[in-house]
């Protein structure tokens, strides 16, 4: 049993194995991602019934809500990967954490932009200091901090360790920030309706949303693997197996 | 070096570090007053930029004073470990058999005494310049008294992470600003509650809780960051 | 000052390798250092001498292999190991704004060696030729004098392991001889000294050991004496 765990630990910690494994896994995530996203968006945007209050503008929810939910969970995942890299010195965890940051930031930005677009027909302005949008904005700031810290180190190891510490500090802060922003919002309540506040939705409305959420998660996994694979090649460029990969690639295709 | 004087040397290490930092600060008084002038200048920009109208200034006063205090502590934080990193003090700190936790707290406490505390003492003057009612001074001073040490601890994390970098400066601001948001919200919330003649003890209690959390957790993050920066 | 260290103190490295920025600094170093030995790390510029010293201090964990202190893994000994250690690097933690005495007082306080009073510090400063300079802010001192302030610790602290990075830098002839004597005295008492220097140590005794860091990088450069000795 212990030997098995140890073997997995070594396998998963080795960039070469990770590269090979994700090479095999990639289609199993990419295809469901495309399927779910196509099915979910066509269903949600074209066939789901219009909202009795907001009309058709609510349909942006199918893009906004999954992005917002991913923004948070990617951050948690990144901090956990960073912590694993910091504690057990697993290089792969560092690379995964590094690759996750820009994806998380992109989802956060998407959530903010779609939130703003949703706000226009709902509130009549592009931006409202509503609790969720404000939390998203702070979330984006956290990502920006981590990415810029990551980018300012010359050594990949120091960069990984430092940004892992910052991500963990951010993770501890996240519930406090969330709570404080919510509290602040109740003080200055101006909007009576909050974006993505879900009343009881009929199944025709929430089923496409669930499909979209799955699609986003598959998309995230696919992107994460792709970026991490690039990162591996870049970092292990001195090793022999990467040289072989880089040489074989064009040959295989021809 | 017997076992028996271990606790004694623990407190000696703490107070010696504190004393050393205060001595250094005292010998560089220009460094000491810089954040204070910055604090005053930022606040005095608001009447110029927004409006000198007392009614307007009165409403924005809590936020303006708090944001200025936050920025001033951040400006000061850049130098917190910089010189220690350059002259090898940081290495000696890490090589000390005393718990790093304790030495780090000593450094942050001295940093607070020389920035946050002075800003807090200065804040009634600025409140007067922004036409804040004297009734609300206690809320302002108390919230700053509890909130600025939290700011100092979080700034120290940022300073420790960036100390080895050639281009620290604005990066500290970028990485610590989002972490300051809760303190800012409850700090200004406290003063605003007082302005609306509501009880503000709740906000003070939350600031106190944040302070406890910062004292307990931040030194670990600072210590880990310093080790990373020194080994890098 | 005159205590004998227990004879079983020992620092050993097994398969110690370090790779920095995609460059192997050293690979599979194996050595045992026992009490009473002076170890000189030899190698050209950029061969990783300072890195090796920092690893042995526990300041860097960026290596593979094992380091044992008295048969225990060094990184598990933590403060017990650090209490046995004096490290004087290129920059020795001397703050320019503080006086020589204040600097030493703080260093001794955080290193937990109880009972270093002003008299002892004044004595140590006198030993390194700085009597009368106790109250002078160290930014007024010359490079060599600053170096001497940091070396004064060696006269007070009772730690058995000394790890010294280029200790002879900026020190005059007289000072070099005294420091050399101090180093070998420490070894005679059963202590360990690990140092890097381009200065050739006079002592011919068998207790002087050399660890040579091979230049693995293929980056050969004339070894320039940049320490002015």
Q: Tell me the structural class of chain B.
A: mainly alpha
Shape of chain C: globular
| Share of helix of chain C, binned | 25-40%
**Tell me, what's the shape of chain B?**
elongated
Unreliable parts of chain B: 1-7
- Which strand order does the major sheet of chain C show? 6-7-8-3-9
Give the N-to-C terminal Cα separation of chain C: 29 Å
What is the distance, rounded to the nearest whole angstrom, between the alpha carbons of the first and last residues of chain B? 33 Å
> What is the rounded Rg of chain B?
19 Å
| Count of discrete alpha- or pi-helical segments spanning 4 or more residues of chain B | 10
* Global structural class of chain C: alpha/beta
Question: Helix amount of chain B, in percent?
Answer: over 70%
Examine the secondary-structure arrangement and name the CATH architecture of the domain at 1-84 and 191-229 in chain C.
3-Layer(aba) Sandwich
If you average the pLDDT of chain C, what whole number results? 82
Biggest sheet layout of chain B: none
Parts with pLDDT < 50 across at least 5 consecutive residues of chain C: 217-229
Mean pLDDT of chain B: 92
CATH class of the domain at 1-84 and 191-229 in chain C: Alpha Beta
Helix-strand pattern of chain C: EEEHEEHHEHHHHEHEE
Biggest sheet details of chain C: 5 strands, parallel
SSE topology string of chain B: HHHHHHHHHH
Question: What are its keywords?
Answer:
heterotrimer, A: 254 residues, mainly alpha, 8 helices, 81% helix, C: 229 residues, alpha/beta, Rossmann fold, five-stranded parallel sheet, four-stranded antiparallel sheet, 24% strand, globular, disordered C terminus
Please tell me about this protein's structure.
The complex is a heterotrimer of chains A (254), B (232) and C (229). Helices cover 81% and strands 0% of the residues of chain A. Chain A is built from eight helices and no strands. In chain A, α4 runs antiparallel to α7 (203-235). By secondary structure, chain B is mainly alpha-helical. Chain B has one domain (10-231). Chain C is an alpha/beta fold and 229 residues long. Chain C has a domain at 1-84 and 191-229: 3-Layer(aba) Sandwich (Rossmann fold). Chain C has eight helices and nine strands. Chain C has a five-stranded parallel β-sheet with strand order 6-7-8-3-9, sandwiched between helices. Chain C is globular and about 50 Å long. Chains in contact: A-B, A-C, B-C. The interface between B and C is medium-sized, with 34 and 35 residues.
């Amino acid at each position: 049993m212990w030997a098995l765990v140890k073997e997995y630990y070594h396998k998963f910690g080795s960039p070469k194995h990770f590269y090979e494994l994700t090479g095999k896994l990639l289609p199993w995530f990419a295809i469901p991602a495309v399927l779910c996203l196509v099915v979910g968006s066509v269903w949600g945007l074209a066939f789901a019934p219009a909202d009795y209050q907001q009309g058709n503008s609510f349909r942006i929810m199918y893009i906004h809500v999954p992005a917002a939910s991913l923004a948070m969970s990617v951050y948690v995942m990144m901090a956990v990967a960073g912590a694993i890299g910091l504690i057990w010195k697993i290089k792969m965890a560092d690379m995964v954490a590094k690759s996750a940051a820009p994806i998380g930031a992109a989802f956060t930005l998407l959530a903010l932009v779609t939130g703003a677009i949703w706000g226009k027909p709902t509130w009549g302005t592009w931006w409202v200091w509503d609790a969720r949008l404000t939390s998203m904005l702070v979330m984006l700031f956290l990502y920006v901090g981590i990415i810029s810290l990551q980018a300012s180190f010359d050594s990949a190891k120091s960069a990984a360790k430092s940004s892992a510490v910052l991500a963990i500090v951010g993770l501890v802060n996240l519930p406090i920030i969330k709570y404080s922003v919510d509290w602040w919002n109740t003080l200055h309540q101006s909007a009576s309706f909050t974006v993505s506040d879900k009343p009881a939705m009929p199944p025709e409305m929430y089923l496409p949303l669930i499909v979209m959420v799955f699609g986003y998660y598959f998309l995230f996994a696919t992107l994460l693997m792709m970026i991490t694979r690039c990162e591996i090649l870049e970092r292990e460029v001195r090793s022999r197996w990467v040289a072989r990969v880089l040489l074989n690639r064009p040959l295989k295709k021809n | 070096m017997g076992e028996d004087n271990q606790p004694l040397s623990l407190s000696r290490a703490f107070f010696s570090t504190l004393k050393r930092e205060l001595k250094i600060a005292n010998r560089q008084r220009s460094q000491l007053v810089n954040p204070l002038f910055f604090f005053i200048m930022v606040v005095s920009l608001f009447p110029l930029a927004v409006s000198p109208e007392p009614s307007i200034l009165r409403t924005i006063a809590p936020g303006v004073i708090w944001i200025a205090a936050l920025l001033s502590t951040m400006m000061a934080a850049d130098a917190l470990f910089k010189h220690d990193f350059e002259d090898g003090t940081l290495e000696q700190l890490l090589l000390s058999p005393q718990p790093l936790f304790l030495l780090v707290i000593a450094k942050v406490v001295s940093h607070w005494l020389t920035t946050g505390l002075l800003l807090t003492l200065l804040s009634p003057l600025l409140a007067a310049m922004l036409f804040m009612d004297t009734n609300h001074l206690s809320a302002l001073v108390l919230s700053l008294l509890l909130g600025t040490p939290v700011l100092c601890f979080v700034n120290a994390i940022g300073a420790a992470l960036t100390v080895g970098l050639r281009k620290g400066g604005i990066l500290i601001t970028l990485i610590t600003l989002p972490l300051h948001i809760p303190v800012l919200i409850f700090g200004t919330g406290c003063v605003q509650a007082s302005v609306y003649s509501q009880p503000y003890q709740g906000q003070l209690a939350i600031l106190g809780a944040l302070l406890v959390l910062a004292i307990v957790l931040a030194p670990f993050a600072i210590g880990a960051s310093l080790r990373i920066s020194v080994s890098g | 000052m005159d205590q004998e260290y227990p004879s079983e103190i020992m620092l050993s490295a097994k398969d110690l390798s370090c790779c920095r920025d995609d460059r192997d600094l050293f690979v599979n170093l194996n050595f045992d250092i026992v009490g009473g030995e002076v170890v000189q790390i030899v190698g050209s510029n950029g061969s990783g001498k300072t890195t090796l010293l920092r690893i042995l201090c526990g300041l860097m964990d960026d290596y593979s292999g094992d380091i044992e202190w008295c048969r225990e893994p060094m990184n598990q000994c933590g403060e017990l190991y650090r209490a046995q250690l004096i490290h004087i690097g290129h920059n020795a933690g001397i703050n320019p704004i503080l006086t020589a005495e204040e600097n030493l007082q703080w260093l001794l306080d955080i290193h937990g060696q109880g009972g270093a009073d002003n008299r002892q510090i004044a004595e140590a400063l006198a030993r390194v030729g700085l009597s009368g300079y106790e109250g002078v802010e160290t930014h007024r001192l010359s490079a060599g004098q600053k170096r001497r302030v940091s070396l004064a610790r060696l006269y007070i602290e009772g730690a058995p392991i000394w790890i010294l990075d280029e200790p002879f830098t900026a020190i005059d002839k007289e000072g070099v001889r005294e420091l050399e004597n101090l180093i070998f005295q420490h070894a005679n008492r059963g202590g360990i000294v690990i140092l890097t220097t381009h200065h050739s140590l006079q002592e011919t005794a068998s207790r002087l050991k050399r660890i040579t860091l091979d230049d693995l990088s293929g980056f050969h450069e004339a070894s320039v004496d940049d320490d002015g000795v």
